[in-house]
Specification:
Elements: E1 15-19, H1 24-35, E2 39-44, H2 48-60, E3 65-69, H3 75-93
Parallel strand pairs: 1-2, 2-3
Helix pairs in contact: 1-2
């Protein structure tokens, strides 16, 4: 099933990666998606403590969250982030994603 903007409720795999999730709008988005039952990838660059706090808040509220550190201005970090995020999806799907 493909998911389209505005039809997220139809997605069977409810996972989302939020860059900048350690504060501000990113943090609010991560918590809002978590409240709707999405598993959250909390991506941060330098704000480890804030990312840890957001992750803990999501988990304390009964949600699932995983932290990912990446400097997205560096191509290598962006590629590594994609690999870290996609590997569990590959295992789940049993095929390349």
């Amino acid at each position: 099933m493909s998911c389209k903007i505005g039809q997220l409720e139809d997605c069977t795999m409810k996972k989302v990666l939020i860059t900048g999730a350690s504060g501000g709008i990113g943090s609010a988005m991560a918590k809002a998606f978590a409240a709707e039952g999405y598993e959250i990838g909390v991506c941060y660059n330098r704000s480890f403590n804030e990312a840890r706090r957001v992750t803990a808040e999501i988990k304390e509220a009964g949600g699932k969250a995983q932290m990912y550190m990446a400097d997205l201005s560096l191509m290598g970090d962006a590629e590594n982030l994609c690999q870290q995020v996609l590997e569990p999806l590959r295992q789940w799907a049993g095929r390349p994603v």
